Amino acid sequence: MGRFFRSLVGEYAIVIYAALLLAVALTWPTLRYPLHTLPQDVWDPSRQAWQIAWAGHILLTDPARLWQSNAFFPLTDSFAYGNSLLGYAPFGMIGEGPLPAVLRYNILFVLAHALLAIGGYALVRQLGAGRTGAAVAAVAFAYAPWRLAQEGHLDIISAGGIPLALAMLARGHGWSLRRGLRPARRSAGWALAGWLVATWQVSLGFSLGGPFLLVLGLVLVVLLVGVPIRRLRRPAERPVLGWRLLLADLFGPLVLAGVSYLIAIPYLRAPATGPAATEIAFFSPPLRSLLIGPAESRIWGAPHEVPRSSLNWPAEMGLLPGFVLYALAFAGLAFSIWTLRQRLLLLVALAGTIVLTLGTNFYEGRWTYLPLFGHLPGSLGLRIPGRLMVWATLLLAILAAGAVAEFVRRAEHLSEQRIPPWPGPWLRLATFVPMALVLVEGWNATAHPVVPAQPTAMRTVSGPMLVLPSAALTDQTVMLWSTTRFQPMVNGSGGFGAARQAELRGKVATFPDAASIEYLRSLNVDRVLLLRSQSAGTSWERAGDIPVDALGIRREDIDDAVVFHLR
Length: 567
Known about the structure:
By secondary structure, this protein is mainly alpha-helical. Helix content is 52%, strand content 4%.
């Protein structure tokens, strides 16, 4: 019992408490009105709130239909039209309807930021940095300014499993960047936990999971090559991998590969979206993007408005990881607890990651991004190179941690030389200045718009149906509204059904008329729900007042909506 209570005030317990408090504060006002607002906008967050709700609902009721969602009817594998966020499915099993879905999304949004800091701290601490250096690195990794442009994408914010899994794998194999390999400290349990966390991370989506799988593949190659070499060079030494650890390193990758393959199957069946090289070229950021902050940054948003407007895709090309982080990482090249060789290796890895982040803007990507990701289906979400900034930020944070940790070490040594050591507290306080500066640079100006209220008819009308008006953005809200009943509906947005949905909206633009009704019947749609309050200014503004007796359908008025029965 005493051990349990001590764990509640241990180092990592304090890290978790601090990470949660920081996440609440630095994502504020996300939890101010968590039932009614969403971060950044109401479009993508609404769709992702629906995704989590659908996964939880269907796994409880009919798991075999997981990938056949209620949206995009009658298309198949429609749940694969975007990163699935399957790892959050257990949360989707609690509550039903739009309000719980929005609340669930906001809580997970805040927890994802906390996990970024916890994972970053655990990795840098395991590599050998002190507490202060690890804390600065964790905050810099979790709240880098470029992340603010991704606040509407929970799948991209949810990257905390990457450093956490790497930290667990390093801990399980007894490896530290600063102290090297220590077989006495290995632990099969930690290694297995690392592989399972990696599996969970990949289950959230392949946009981040795909590159992570490549990194883990490199880890396995190092193990397969390095362990025999070390054994041959030091035959008298204790085996690097015991049988338990060997089993963990066999079972863990098998689980990871199996789960990744099963999740990938519906994505590989998804329709193509166009030539990969064309899409990658459009989304490839220029080198100057690394110095441009996103619009959602309170510090750099306004000052960088002009350079940001020159970018092809400003929403995801403001890739500034923080000028403070740059300065600390640069200092870490000359002043660090890491050895010179380690610093040079980190620098090489950072340069390689930045080259990949530039996509086709580095020698057209012919020897970098395209060979790695250009041949993969667009459904896997790997055609936005800028998202690899997560790896560049992590490497910058490790370099920065080396500089901060060295400063702390020298400050402690200096204070020990004085009698009495009165400058100690002041020097210790100075070590927190980098963290304060990093926190300020991560200060957000993210909008939190109110989610449109669910129309009453969405709780009563059955499908298959079409909800009008329909548009690429508003359909994402309709998907959220469907979380009460999950009735089959033609509506859907996001991912890889865009071409079909555009064709659909064109053919029903004149509804109700004979041609649109015949088209909807060919899709086996039984009802059309027209939301009068939403249709002003659209082509369906007068649709609820047109006589339909001659069209062979029936109209029913429900509150502020009209239901057209096609059969």
